[in-house]
Model the fold of this input.
Amino acid sequence: MSFIIDVQGLTKVFKEVTAVNDLSFSVPKGEVYGFLGQNGAGKSTTIRMLLTLIQPTSGSVSILGKDLLHHRKEVLQQTGAIIEKPDLYKYLTALENISIMARLSGAKLTKKELVRQLERVGLAERATSKVKTFSQGMKQRLGIACTLVHNPQLIILDEPTNGLDPQGIADVRNLVLSLSKDEGKTIFVSSHLLSEIEVIADSMLIIDKGKKVAEGKAEDLLHPSDTLVQLETANDVQTKILLLANRWSVYLQDGANIVLKMHRTEVPALNIFLVQNGVEVFSLRSKHSLEDYFLSLTTANQHVDAYPN
Amino acid sequence: MLTLTRIELFKIFKKARTYIAFGAIGAIIILIQLAMYADGESYLEFMLGNINTAFEIEGNKLNGYFVFYLILHTLLVHVPLLICLVAGDAVAGEANMGTLRLLVTKPISRTGLILSKFLASSIYTLLLLTFMAVLGLGVSVALFGVSDLMVQKSDMFILLDKADVLWRYAAAYGFAALSMITVAAVAFLFSVFADNSIGPIIAAMSVVIVATILTTMDIPIFNALKPYLFTNHMLNWKGFFDNPVDLREVLKSAGVLVLHIVLFVSLAVYFFRKKDVLS
Done:
């Protein structure tokens, strides 16, 4: 399998904060690769290192088989990116913006070809309007048009649906899928929302506090052996004490009463344990989705020690 | 590099802020010309003082060359502040808009990017000075005609033949361009460190103002500093209106200004190449 991005031991330290810690991953060619993590997990820092905006403290990045440090120009010629939000020149028109981006990327396009690029994202009629008059969704679409104007092989999108309405989110999602399936482009897309990634990604990487916590095919991650069990009882405090005293691993999250992480086969045993100890259970729900898995991996800091001394 | 510079110039001249300086300069020049047209003779009388009683000066003293000299004298102190508006915005303004990260992810070298931005700021500076020269000299000559130029120095008046004036203005324009590009380089260097334009614009203006004060105050401790202050050398455009011109002194000052430009721009390139773009 050939990889478009190959990252080895990537680390970035800002003064005393390690934003990205020994991160390694590989992105296969032609895939939509999801990059997940909560806000502040190190996603944007990683992406900025992939795009040479930030210099890594250590580690190596190879894109399209070329070392990024030594072949920056060749790599960036084949890369298009939107980082966080598509900041464009608001005092210029859509056509002027895309024309500048094309020239900076080394693409020589005629005015007609540029308008066609705007047509692709539904902005041809607003080609001569200033960007300051655009809605957030229109700016996002123009940003995507600017990203694609030089026909890059690799597209990096950092939180591309931030601030978009449901229709805008659906448009971006469809565009990403179309670029991957119809045009064979590799797309590296980050988000803190798993619901966005799970519907488009072929593979994904989950990071937390700058470290990799999981990587693999989306379908493999969708069926983890662990599950989260959400409990609602008559007396949650006493139940929690009882569980901790009996070595059950309890998580706190999202205001849920009690959440336990366990192997699926242990769920019946938990049920029996609660009944035998006279706990009045209102509900016992096994949450088995990628969202739960994602949260279980990225909320480790909220884990209550199950074995207090 | 050429494409990058053209793009930078296109962006500069699409911004409303760019035209503030042209508007301000145009307004000052026209005001001075109107004032001279209305009451120039009284000003001349005041300037000449008792020289008028000791000597008889014939001819059109209040001519276009004289009015333009007066304009240059007034404006070349204030133009640096206007130049800071654009040069200070060159990198920091892009960081503020979020477009700097867009530029840095394009297949262009950081050195090329920063040099093209500086080149565009310098071209803007030259255009501003050209505008000043055309409006100042052109309209003054049209309004007041041409004659010999009388220039006041600290302890004397110099009278320059009208046929001997234009080349001096051309040379002074070249020297003033160098001075203003030095100011642009200072603002540009500050711009590399900031994520919004206000900081570098104010910082550069402050440097120019403080250094100008140190240059103009005749205090021994400041006098020792003067050879190292670019603002001290910036005033040497006036050297072209001496008779004869002390070319050695003028060239020395020009050299010092070039060295300052090279130093400030080299520092800007060095720091920009190392900069983590977080904006």
Notes: The interface with chain A takes residues 3-4, 7, 10-11, 14-16, 97-99, 101-109, 274, 276-278 of chain B (CB under 8 Å). The beta strands of chain B are 149-152, 157-160. The two ends of chain B are 24 Å apart (CA to CA).
